[in-house]
Amino acid sequence: MKGYVVCVYKNISNEEKLKEYAIKARTAVEKYKGKFLIRGGRSISNEGEKSPRTVVIEFPSYDKANSFYNSKEYQDAHTILKGYVERQHQTIEGA
Predict the structure, then answer these.
(1) Is the pTM higher than 0.90?
(2) Looking at the domain assignment, is residue 28 inside a domain?
(3) CA 59, CA 92: separation in Å to the nearest integer?
(4) Which range of residues forms the domain containing residue 57?
(5) Would you say residue 18 lies in a domain?
(6) Which pLDDT band, with edges at 50, 70 and 90, does 64 fall under?
(7) What CATH number is given to the structural domain containing 21?
């Protein structure tokens, strides 16, 4: 079964840091064969609070999605966000 990384951002205080993170994170996504399904874009909130950004990445498997998150490449990118974003980040097994 496929694995998905779902990030729902609650707050972004520095867009430049987010861009810097995105460049580094993309390298890890590509290494682990991830495919961006959602990366920002237009949205409306039908229920609950509106998020400033949502990202969904599909991986060949749940294990591959977890390997991506725990990889040195991704963790190096992730450190760029500290203090600049608040988000919920989940790895989910597909149906």
Answers:
(1) yes
(2) yes
(3) 10
(4) 3-87
(5) yes
(6) very high
(7) 3.30.70.100
